[in-house]
User: Fold these one by one.
Assistant:
Number 1:
Amino acid sequence: MDHNVVIIDAVRTPFGKFGGRLREHSAVELGALAVKALLARAGIRPEELSETIFGCGIIDASTAVPARQINFKVGIPATTPSLTVDRACCSSMTAIGLALMKLRLGEASVIVAGGIESCSQTPFLMRGTRWGRKLGDFSVEDPMHVRNPITGLALTVVTGEKALEYGVPREMQDEWSYQSHRKYFAAYDAGVYEREILPLEVEGHGVVALDEGPRRDTSLERLAALPTAYGSPTVTAGNAPGLNDGASAVILMSREEAARRGLTPLAEVIAYAQLSGDLESSVYMPGHAIVAAAKKAGIGLRDLKCIEINEAFAAMPLVSTKIMAGDDAAELARLRSMTNVNGGSVAIGHPPGASGARVVMAAARELRRRGGGYAAAGICGGFGQADAVILKA
């Protein structure tokens, strides 16, 4: 049995703004577009897939079993199993982790894993109305007003408070955000995103090939002028990503299967780790998850050539790298210098179900640009949870 699992190729749609150019596309439609393009690019027929695994963070917008719906839209046979994963923002990285396990066990030969989200199509919820009411007002709940359903606290508040605890003030978060936009456009203009982003023909907008969130005119002055959000001490609309639409997908198989098909892998998935902590631990959990995945892979942080940490807020990579470095200031500077070098989710956008696979494909491609070695990708999600993978190329 071949335990070496590789990513053959990876693609994502552009990430759209809330109510932006992709708002008429459902999460399922976006996922199907990504999968069709991915299969065509890799020369794999739909009937050759063993399974599809897709993450979705806000399943209200996708109705039932969206992974199964994607299968039918793509033309994957009805006999092909599918799995929909809800681990909030971790979901599509969890999908990759599950694919890794199944392929290593010999339970599958070719798997498409990824994630989808349409924040724009997420409906309002009106609870307690199914059986009617004789008197009184109805209340409407908005799932996009992101709060912890267990504690009721806004995520912006928890993130801001934890960031300050770890010595990461607002100014540092604004600076990271500014650099996220700046690095994105430097990379985009250099063609870094050419193989990653699938251009979409969108009615009324022509071809959309650029993420909608990044701003060339972002400045530290503009970021500093923004008010904090929902009572947070540090988090603003400028140092957090928007509510976004998009899909991401990767093809995984054993190295032996790739050789049999004459396919050149993008990267090998060496290790996957999944952790959980207390309800307010999300800001630093990606750091712990990366350390755990590196330990599984038998490598140290010094072996890493590049790191991707999802910018659910700018605070996440800042605090997580601090956790990884400990009290070593030089190591902290080194880790941050190789983290999200082509921009992150503050600029690109964060469709919760799709971001985990996006940071994996970003790490894989950057690793190849750097001549190979090891890379890490980490993401938090689901109120104190985190996933991480270690890649080799």
Note: The domain at 5-123+241-392 is CATH 3.40.47.10 (Peroxisomal Thiolase; Chain A, domain 1).
Number 2:
Amino acid sequence: MQYIYAALLLHKSGKEVSEDNLKKVVAAAGVEVDESKIKSLIASLKGVNIDEELANASLISAAPKGVSSDEGKEDKEEHKKEEKKEAAAEGLSALFG
């Protein structure tokens, strides 16, 4: 994760997300630099628009509209009750083989 955070920090500060810059940021954080992780991250970021990806990520993590917190709680409670019933049934079947 520290490598991703370093890449995001470089991007946010307007610096180039490169191997050398990533090494510097990670080393400055006091973390031992792993060359293979840095190379892998740089390779996976080739051609990626970080701003666009961050915008999409925030849309995904946003709560869906129209669902109140009370509705979510009711669904979770019903799901837990169903799980308990299923677990109890499984326990009984184990007794009788």
Note: DSSP finds five helices and no strands in the chain.
Number 3:
Amino acid sequence: MATIETTYLGGLRTEATHVQSGTKIITDAPVDNQGKGEAFSPTDLLSASLASCMLTIMGIKARDNNIDIDGTTCSITKIMAANPRRVAEIVISFKFPKQYTEEQQQLLERAALTCPVYYSVHEDLKKTVDFGWEVEVKA
């Protein structure tokens, strides 16, 4: 059974439906590629997928180790390249709501950098990750 069903709506838009939940996502071509930029572009979703995957895997590791990361956010910057047009780099900057020990930081970083999307994108795609650890706390 399919995981996602996607329909071309015309006007450089698609609608993807998650089969199990029925949740829908609209995509639109970006302004710099003949679109209106009124929704996520497919390459925006690629970038968001990487960050969401990293947060999810960190969440699993955090839950298993009684570390509270609720409220953690990240900013994602997608950098495009031409010839061929592609995502050249994804920059992810995390902001954690709490301070963590060095051991906890290492645990969370290792988890993030082993998420399935991180391993699934081409090795030529540069992934720049800033965990933003403000203050080092001793255990």
Note: The helical segments are 42-64, 102-112, 116-120.
Number 4:
Amino acid sequence: MRRLCTPPFLAATTLLFSQNLYSAPSHDAHRSHYGAPQARVTPIVDGASDDAAWEDATWRPIDNVWLGENLTPEDFNGRYKLVWTEDKLFVLVEFVDDVLVDFHRDPLQQYWDDDCLEIFIDEDHSGGNHQYNHNAFAYHLSLDNQAIDIGTDKQARSYNHHVQSQWRQQQGVVIWEAAIDIYTDKYQDEAADNRPVELTSGKIMGFMIAYCDNDHSELREHFIGSEDAGSDHKDRGWIDAGLFGTLQLVD
């Protein structure tokens, strides 16, 4: 891949643009910023972290406890990486969870109360409400690799055609990979002609990741995210994209 040097004035402009987006009124203060490198070779989504593409990406923690008390490192601790190609965003998550459960066998019922990975994406970094619209997506990835979000009809829907995921557990550590098509807020649930966007260097999106942890209960026991939720924002991510961090695609 050919790399071009960025002129200093352009680099400064890009940085200023990123900072302005980072602190935009539609977003909470103190959001994280992640620069995801472009993958030279597309990762294979197989629940293994040995793809060369992951070597260039930086780990970030999943360590903000949004719901639940007395979370120990043995109960859950996790981190994630991101890379991209023109077609997809790739997510690698590594975590420890001492008990994995999938109590609710219907994938559209109480999926948030089972152990699941939740990936939040705001294609244009606009922030704002996405509860019953596609201003942003909040994909809940279950242990049987279902991808569930709420549609514009206010009902849970399968978005398996958006997300490919696979996980493995080895020596107590779960490695979870996902490849995600990115859609704009013009996405229509009933349409047959939705097309994902082409990803390019410099693109800025909203991104956040979280984990719903349940060991033995009817309801989830902990909810842990990559962003600071604040005292009054403990379960706001599925409604407000202003809680998301800033993701920038870089060469």
Note: The chain is about 5% helix and 35% strand.
